[in-house]
Design a protein that fits this description.
Layout: H1 4-15, E1 18-20, H2 23-30, E2 32-38, H3 39-43, E3 49-55, H4 61-72, H5 78-87, E4 96-102, E5 106-111, E6 114-119, H6 121-126, E7 139-145, E8 148-156, H7 163-172, E9 176-180, H8 185-195, E10 199-201, H9 206-219, E11 224-229, H10 235-240, E12 243-247, H11 253-258, E13 261-263, H12 270-285
Parallel strand pairs: 2-9, 2-11, 9-10, 11-12, 12-13
Antiparallel strand pairs: 1-13, 3-8, 4-5, 5-6, 6-7, 7-8
Helix pairs in contact: 1-12, 2-12, 4-5
This protein binds adenosine-5'-diphosphate (ADP) and magnesium ion.
Length: 286
C-alpha cells in the first residue's frame, strides 16, 4: 500500500501547479542529479520575432519573406508565426501545392510551381544548396527557390522571466543543468551563457535528444535524470528520461499524457519547487 504521506505530497505539489502522476515519481524527484531542458518554449518564451532579412543573388527582402511565409502557412512551429507576422499579409492557398514539414529541419513546399525551401543549415545541406554559415545569435531560416539561394531570415526569441532563476536554484542544490536544442550553435551558445547552464548541445534532431538523455543517464550512476520540454516534437524524450516533465499550458496533449510530472504554468522554476516538495514529503513518509 502507498503511505498516506504521499497523498499529502502529491496534494501539496498540485496546489503549487505541479501535477505528479504517482508516488514513485515523488521518490524519483528526491534523487535527481541532472535536469535537462529543451530550449524553445521551455527556457525561452518561444515567441519568435523576425529581426533581420539578409538577401542574396539579387532577390529582395519582400520576396524572401513572401516565399517563406507561403512555405510556412500551415506550420505550427513558432518560427512560422513570426515569418507570417513579418510578411503581414494573408497567403493565397491556391499558390501552395504539396508541403512537407521535416522535423528539426524546416519546410519543403511547392509554391507557384517552384520548389521552395525554408529551414536551417541541415535542410539546405540535405538539398545540396550552397549557403553561408551565419554567426548570428538568432535562429536562422534560409530560403531557396528552385535550387537557387534567396537569403536568410534572422528570428530572435527571449528567455522566460524565471529561466535564469530556474537554473540558479538547481545549481544551488548541486544538480547538473543541461540544455538541448535543435537550434544552431550560436543561438544555443548565447542563451547558455545568459543562463549560466552547465552543458548544452545543439543542432539536435528529436532522436539525438533521446541519445543525449541516455548518455546522461549512464553518466549519472544511479542519480536520476529529469527532462523538461513543451512536447513540440520532444514527447519521445519526455518518455525516455527517468522523470519526464511537460509544460502544461503550452505543451502538446501527447506530451502531457506521456509525462510523469506536468507543470501547469510554463515556469521552468517550478522544477526546483517540485524537488523541494518531494524532499519534504519523503521526510514525512520516512
Ligand atoms: P528546439 O530544439 O529548440 O525546440 P525544434 O526541434 O523545434 O527546436 O527545431 C529545431 C530547428 O529546426 C529550428 O531551430 C529551426 O532551425 C528548424 N525548424 C523546425 N521547424 C521549422 C519550420 N517550420 N520552419 C523553419 N525552420 C524550422
Ligand atoms: Mg522544442
Amino acid at each position: 500500500s502507498i503511505p498516506l504521506g504521499y497523498f499529502g505530497g502529491i496534494g501539496s505539489a498540485s496546489r503549487k501547479g505541479i501535477l505528479v502522476k504517482g508516488s514513485n515519481f515523488l521518490d524519483a524527484l528526491t534523487q535527481v542529479k541532472t535536469v535537462v531542458f529543451d530550449k524553445t518554449g521551455t527556457l525561452t518564451k518561444g515567441e519568435f520575432i523576425v529581426s533581420e532579412v539578409v538577401t542574396s543573388n539579387g532577390f529582395t527582402k519582400e520576396e524572401i519573406l513572401e516565399y517563406a511565409a507561403y512555405a510556412e502557412t500551415n506550420s505550427n512551429h513558432p518560427v512560422a508565426k513570426s515569418i507570417s507576422d513579418a510578411f503581414g499579409k494573408d497567403t493565397d492557398s491556391k499558390r501552395i501545392k504539396q508541403v512537407d514539414e521535416i522535423s528539426g529541419h524546416g519546410i519543403k513546399a511547392v509554391i507557384d510551381g517552384k520548389t521552395v525551401l525554408a529551414g536551417n543549415d541541415k535542410l539546405l545541406h540535405k538539398e545540396n544548396i550552397e549557403h553561408p554559415v551565419c554567426n548570428v545569435e538568432g535562429t536562422v531560416v534560409h530560403v531557396a527557390i528552385d535550387k537557387v539561394y534567396m537569403g536568410y531570415i534572422i528570428i530572435s526569441d527571449t528567455l522566460k522571466d524565471d529561466a535564469i532563476e530556474a537554473i540558479e536554484k538547481l545549481k544551488a542544490k548541486n544538480i547538473q543543468t543541461v540544455m538541448l536544442t535543435g537550434d544552431n550553435q550560436f543561438a544555443a551558445a548565447a542563451f547558455a551563457k545568459k543562463l549560466g547552464i552547465d552543458k548544452y548541445f545543439y543542432e539536435l534532431l528529436p532522436e539525438d535528444k533521446v541519445k543525449h538523455i541516455e548518455t546522461l543517464m549512464e553518466e549519472s550512476k544511479g542519480g536520476k535524470v529529469a527532462f523538461v520540454g513543451d512536447g513540440i516534437n520532444d514527447a519521445p524524450v519526455i518518455a525516455r528520461a527517468d522523470i519526464g516533465i511537460a509544460m502544461g499550458a503550452l505543451g502538446s496533449d501527447a506530451a502531457i499524457e506521456t509525462a510523469d510530472v506536468v507543470l501547469m504554468t510554463d515556469s521552468p522554476s517550478k522544477v526546483s519547487i517540485a524537488i523541494d516538495v518531494a524532499k519534504r514529503t519523503r521526510k514525512i513518509v520516512w
